[in-house]
Amino acid sequence: MKDSASHNNESTATKKEKFLRAVKTLVKIYYPNIRLDDFPSYKLVRDRVVHPIGILVSIVLSQNTSDKNAGIALQRLKERIGNYLDPNKLKELSAEELEEIIKPSGMQRQKSRTIINILREFGGDPDALMVEDPVRLRERLLRIEGVGPKTADVFLLFVRGYPTFPMDTHIRRFLERMGIGRRNEPYEKLQERVLQLLPRDPKFLLAAHLAIIIHGREICKARNPLCRKCVINSFCPYHKRNKAQEPKR
Ligand code: SF4
Fold first, then answer.
1. Which residues contact 7 (CB under 8 A, 6 or more apart)?
2. Which domains does the chain have, with CATH numbers?
3. What is the CA(34)–ligand 1 centre distance, in A?
4. Residue 233 CB–ligand 1 contact under 6 Å
5. Which pLDDT belongs to residue 190?
6. Which phi-psi region, left, alpha or beta, contains residue 194 (left: φ > 0; alpha: ψ -120 to 50)?
7. Is the CB of 52 within 6 Å of ligand 1?
8. Whole-angstrom distance, CA of residue 22 vs CA of residue 217
9. For residues 181 and 175, is the Cβ–Cβ distance under 8 A?
10. Ligand 1 pocket member 236 (CB < 6 A)
11. Which atom of ligand 1 is nearest to the CA of 219?
12. Which pTM does this prediction carry?
C-alpha cells in the first residue's frame, strides 16, 4: 500500500500533468485561429511596423479595458502621429491632447501620465527596450509609475521573446478553477508556479497566454462558465466539483 506522502506526490504530479494537457489542448484549438484584431498589441508585434515604445504604449492602453476599446484608442493615436508611433511625435503631444486621443480606452488621465513617464524613462534611450538584459529591463519598467507586472511581462514576452507568462483576469480565473492558483494570490508567486508547470519555450508561452484569454472570454467566463461545452472539462477540478449542481442545458 502507498504511504500518504507518495500518494500526495502522485496527486500533485497528476494535477500538473492534467494542467499541462489542458493548456496544450487550448493552444491547439485556439491559437491557429486567432483573430489578430482581438489582440491589438500582439497585432502590432506581428505587423512589425511600430516603434517598441509604441508597442509599450499600446499595452498601457489595453490596461483595464476591452481590447475593442484599446484598439479604438490605438487607431486614434495612429491617425494623429502615424502608424509607426514614433516616440518623438508622441513627445510633441501635451498631456491634455494625449488624454483626448486615448479617451476611448478609459482611465485616460492615468494612462496619459503613464505614457509620459515611459517617454521620460526611454524617450532618450529607446534602444534599451530591445537590447537591455530582460531581467534588468523588467525592473526598470516596474519602476515607472503606472507600469505593473502584467504590462512589463506582456512586453517582454511579445516583443523580446522572453519566456515569461503575463496573467490577466481571464488567466487568473482559469488558474484558480484549474486548482493551480488561489484568489488574490500575489502575481509573482502565482506566475512562478505556472512557469514551473509549463515548458519554458517563449513561443509556447505566448500561444498559451493568448489561448487561455480566448478560452476565458468565450467559454470559461467569469459568470456561468460553459463547462458542459468546455473541451477540457475532464481535466478541470472546478467542473468536477460543480457537475452535480450545474443546471442541464
Ligand atoms: S470546465 Fe468550466 S471551469 Fe473548467 S476550464 Fe472549462 S469552462 Fe472553465
1. none
2. 9-34+165-242 (1.10.1670.10), 39-158 (1.10.340.30)
3. 20
4. yes
5. 97
6. alpha
7. no
8. 17
9. yes
10. yes
11. 7
12. 0.90
